[in-house]
């Protein structure tokens, strides 16, 4: 499992997801989580596309 090609990127995305979820909790619409994850990933330095 340590020879994964994009392990560092995957770990960063999963960490951003958990950070958003731990702050917001559950019960919001998907769009709320999508926007929060977009901002969290952008703040972490990831280049993110936002589709409307």
Automatic annotation (TrEMBL):
Pfam families per record: PDDEXK_3
InterPro entries according to UniProt: GxxExxY (IPR026350)
Protein name in UniProt: GxxExxY protein
Organism of provenance: Shivajiella indica
